[in-house]
Amino acid sequence: MSATAPAAPAPGGAGPDERLGRTSPLRRLMGRPELGSVVGALAVFLFFAVVADSFLRAASLSTVLYAASTIGIMAVPVALLMIGGEFDLSAGVMVTSSALVSSMFSYQMTANVWVGVGVSLLVTLAIGVFNGFMLTRTGLPSFIITLGTFLMLTGLNLGFTKLISGTVSTKSIADMEGFASAKSVFASTLTLGGVNFKITILWWFALVGVATWLLLRTRAGNWIFAVGGGKDAARAVGVPVARTKIGLYMGVAFGAWIAGQHLLFSFDVVQSGEGVGNELIYIIAAVIGGCLITGGYGSAIGSAVGALIFGMTSKGIVFAEWNPDWFKFFLGAMLLLATLLNAWVRKRAEATT
Amino acid sequence: MTLAGCSSTGGKRAEDARKAAASQGKSTVSTPRWTFAMVTHSGDGDTFWDIVQNGAREAAAKDNINFVYSHHDEAQQQAQLVDAAIDKEVDGIIVTLAKPAAMKSALERARKAGIPVITVNSGSAESKEFGALTHIGQDETVAGEAVGTELNERGRRSAVCVLHEQGNVGHEQRCAGAKKTFEGRMTNLYVDGTNMPDVQASIVSKLQADRDIDAVVTLGAPFADTAVKAKQDAGSKAEIDTFDLNEKVAAGLKSGDLGFAVDQQPYLQGYEAVDLLWLFKYNADVLGGGKPVLTGPQIVTKDQAAELEDYTKRGTR
């Protein structure tokens, strides 16, 4: 619960609760879940700024931000889900599924592209509901449930695409009605001061904003922390555990929908075998950003910082002209360091409150 | 001169000697030190791309080029790596178009930035359309057709095409090409290429299920060896043939475990790409006249095996 407390400070007047009244700004900062990752991100940024001379160019930073945003869009809802105490291993392929559904529906029905996009939203959300419903109904761990969904979706993606299109990728829908407007929503490029920014960066920032507001300012946010901290205790005080968890899975599905539409509208066609393995990247971003694997602790901003570290490392290695063979090693080391730093910061924060 | 207990052949010392010989390759030109970036769709630790890189690096050493390599098997990530190379303002880009649609906008950006692009390996159909100078590689359908013809000549009646990467367009084209020219019956078998025991078990069960199969075609060199093991497990008489070469395949050809291999000469793809970019920058040369420059298929059999074994050992075939 430590993440929610600092969000409601009692400015000026003596707070009725001494635990809140005595919190100094420094201590409040120390209690933030994303502190460790922010320190890590600064270190990675400075490191590549020194090592790679082209890293600090505006165009380079925009590329890094784009890379971070494609992970970050999914890392936000995945972080929320982790705070709620669950995993989603189907998140990676769900992105591909979502893109495949809109593309194939629009093409086969010769419908306006937006119809396909809408159908895809419904189908993707239904997958989220399926995950959440199975979880709350069966009581099986989310690891098993979503692993099952992951495998089923992987098979469905390939099977359906091959069945409908005859090949392993979809047909181009670039010449269909509504494509241009959908592309401007999901995959356009904005020019700001001579530098091109991909619109996914805006989507990402918006999601982080909404998720942060949800977590810290609404009752639903309290529910998320409560079900992640202790399901039974939460249920005892009247938190709708099942509804909250299903909602969280729908959040992941919504993120997958946005990421999937971006994939579709930036590349016109979708390869059915993509997306496998990305679910771990989203989880890593959330964990680097300070989410606890056991649930009940974390933040949306942290997941964004985690995604940013990911983007900086993966592209920084290119800018520094290093051998990419070492990328996974750096990523692993960063994950360990971030988690250790998080654990240390939290222990310090808890010891002094 | 050999010390007691040391091997006079092979091992680390032989490798060092080869490396020392290779590093003697100093640049032979006096053009400025340009930077060329190569971005491929390779997964981590792929032997095929090692050979491509060897070719590219040796050409780079000769042409006084600073060669930078990066790769990612997800299309979106690969496109971002090309973006990063453009941001770095490199002097030339070599890229694979295994997932062409995903790379279109990145190549457009490169064109706008005035960076020459050469496509290699995959994407012969899209290369010109996307504004690349030349495509260097093997036409997968043509390569598949060559396999079908070769199987006919060897009197095969029933073949199975082993695809180790579900969703790879090039793989589908190879098997479809082979099916087209092969006069016997050919079926596809999908296996999980990242799980070798699974590959072996799948081939075994296929061979056990269908005793008529007299040819197994694998699409990658590492899988040929697994297919040989599977054939033994299943007690089958099928001939194992494969796409691509490596040390084991060369040895297999020599010993007769393998019938033939279709080589697309990855070394050539890397070497020629760097060399052609250099030629373009130095002399505005272009090769192919708008048509892809084919590096394969070259069918290799027992006859060439001994010679190839040396070259596969040093990592250039």
Account of the protein in words:
The complex is a heterodimer of chains A (353) and B (317). Chain A is mainly alpha-helical and 353 residues long. Chain A has 15 helices and two strands. Chain A has a two-stranded antiparallel sheet. In chain A, helix 5 packs parallel to helix 7 and helix 6 packs antiparallel against helix 12. Chain B is 47% helix and 19% strand. In chain B, strand 3, helix 4 and strand 4 form a beta-alpha-beta unit. The longest helix of chain B is centred in the C-terminal third of the chain and has 18 residues. The model of chain B has no long low-confidence stretch (mean pLDDT 88). At the A-B interface, helix 4, helix 12 and helix 14 of A face strand 2, helix 3 and helix 4 of B.
Short structural summary:
The complex is a heterodimer of chains A (353) and B (317). Chain A is an all-alpha fold.
Q: What oligomerization state is this entry in? A: heterodimer
The tally of helices of chain A reads: 15
Strand content of chain B: 15-25%
Strand order of the largest sheet of chain B: 2-1-3-4-5-11
**Runs of chain A with pLDDT <50, length 5+?**
1-15
Q: Per the principal axes of the C-alpha atoms, what is the gross shape of chain B?
A: globular
Query: Structural class per helix/strand content of chain B?
Result: alpha/beta
Strand content of chain A: under 5%
How are strands sequenced across the largest beta sheet of chain A? Answer: 1-2
SSE string of chain A, helices as H and strands as E: HHHHHHHHEEHHHHHHH
Residue runs with pLDDT of under 50 for 5 or more positions of chain B: none
Tally of separate helices of chain B: 11
User: Which class best fits the helix and strand makeup of chain A?
Assistant: mainly alpha
User: What is the string of SSEs of chain B from the N terminus onward?
Assistant: HEHEHEHEEHEHEHEHEHEHEEH
Largest interface: A-B, 34 and 31 residues
Main beta sheet of chain B? 6 strands, parallel
